[in-house]
Amino acid sequence: MLSENTTILMANGEIKDIANVTANSYVMCADGSAARVINVTQGYQKIYNIQQKTKHRAFEGEPGRLDPRHRTVYQRLALQCTAGHKLSVRVPTKPLLEKSGRNATKYKVRWRNLQQCQTLDGRIIIIPKNHHKTFPMTVEGEFAAKRFIEEMERSKGEYFNFDIEVRDLDYLDAQLRISSCIRFGPVLTGNGVLSKFLTGRSDLVTPAVKSMAWMLGLWLGDGTTKEPEISVDSLDPKLMESLRENAKIWGLYLTVCDDHVPLRAKHVRLHYGDGPDETRKTRNLRKNNPFWKAVTILKFKRDLDGEKQIPEFMYGEHIEVREAFLAGLIDSDGYVMKKGEGPESYKIAIQTVYSSIMDGIVHISRSLGMSATVTTRSAREEIIEGRKVQCQFTYDCNVAGGTTLQNVLSYCRSGHKTREVPPIIKREPVYFSFTDDFQGESTVYGLTIEGHKNFLLGNKIEVKSCRGCCVGEQHKISQKKNLKHCVACPRKGIKYFYKDWSGKNRVCARCYGRYKFSGHHCINCKYVPEAREVKKAKDKGEKLGITPEGLPVKGPECIKCGGILQFDAVRGPHKSCGNNAGARIC
Ligand SMILES: [Zn+2]
Ligand SMILES: [Zn+2]
Ligand SMILES: [Zn+2]
Ligand SMILES: [Zn+2]
């Protein structure tokens, strides 16, 4: 069962709170079809937070302390469900030839299979297990080992897909647990709200509808909230030309106004009417202007305060409309990274100061089958075109995809952002690794879906229909946890812990990195400061504190808790053994 406050993607593209989902309504399935909700149950159970792993360093370093918004990981994929709820999980089968150690006398091939396993409470579950097979260290042995690997690859395929109850995740070996992934799925159908508004028919996706979607994206990125005005880079003639063409389709013509100082960015107004010969310039700027009508009536401008926003219906628009709209945002505020290799060969970043636009970009990107993450930047001063500019707190939306993203870029018109239409588009679920943590008790809802089809949550995570194992509380019996916790920060992991001041492997790689250089830790909260933080604390002067044992102690102040920092001569920085200049750790 799923926790209250979970949102569900309905078949019509609407995102609904699970508490408001009723029997006989239709949900969006992972395969793009609609399926009926057979029944809805309610209970009160322990819930677990299933959360996407990220590399975000939200809790570390100075930015996070100075601005609390930095500590939030925005739009992290997560779901909260009961211990008995099943997840669809995938792990790579990948057999590996291990050249174990210098003194190895045998070839070792690691391989995996799906097999039965008995839980502590006597249930039989089917999960992947690690195995190994050894071969003599001879030419024949190596040949046989390679043959064995090929055979494994052929018979097992690339991945194992299996269903597992949340409470049984601990039965996976550490290696298998970290390579386990769940997925979110693209949304393949569209609600046609924009088409209906523009053409009267929700199923029509004409070039005109797409050009409007693109202009709306462009305006959300670089437009003025007061009127249909967009600033356009004058060094990008293709962009200006495309705006002119797209506007013309809707009976709009452009006027360009320069500010007192001509800047690279030109203010372009979209007028509705016959042409620039009309006497009063602003006459048809807002009145009857189809573009401005779409902006205001479809609420790309929030009623409350007139701020820009991406209305929720855009998350579930026709695929082409979502693509053209996102392309408009990329043309205005986006940056295209170099093409790489593999399934996420394209990367773009879009900057915005509006949280609603950030939310929309992430939702739309994921709905197109692309991965999206958000990083943040504090308010700062930047030099742009030789002028000092005060920049606000910014969200950087990072989107990655293969042919899916290439196709979005094919809608872009800016000279250096546009790409060719890919010959085929591979739109598939996107996999991500996850953590599972006990969260507390909550009201929970169970949805049984016709045909037990997998369906999508509001955030596009694919979940399973509830079954017998969801009825009533299922107790998690195994207590073993593979995870280790870093003593100096909230991080936890399975591997890679390093020696701290006590000589035990208790700090994570990141804290160890800082510890190596600063040689300090807080005796009260165990925080490991950066070297420059130690310097700052020292400049402020020593202060008096109390050790955890209750003894008075003197030293620099910890910025985290106000406790006392201690220098550990053993691991701290010292000059290398007289040969090289500069501080080095011996
Ligand atoms: Zn369930
Ligand atoms: Zn202007
Ligand atoms: Zn740490
Ligand atoms: Zn401290």
TrEMBL record:
An individual GO BP term: intein-mediated protein splicing
Keywords: Endonuclease, Hydrolase, Nuclease
UniProt key word Hydrolase: yes
Domain of life: Eukaryota
Keyword Lipoprotein appears in the UniProt entry: no
Alphabetized Pfam families for the sequence: Hom_end, Hom_end_hint
Matching InterPro entries: Hint_dom_N, Hint_dom_sf, Hom_end_hint, Homing_endonuc_PI-Sce, Homing_endonucl, INTEIN, Intein_endonuc_central
Organism (species): Saccharomyces cerevisiae
Domain DOD-type homing endonuclease: 215-370
Record GO terms (molecular function): DNA binding; endonuclease activity
Protein name: HO endonuclease
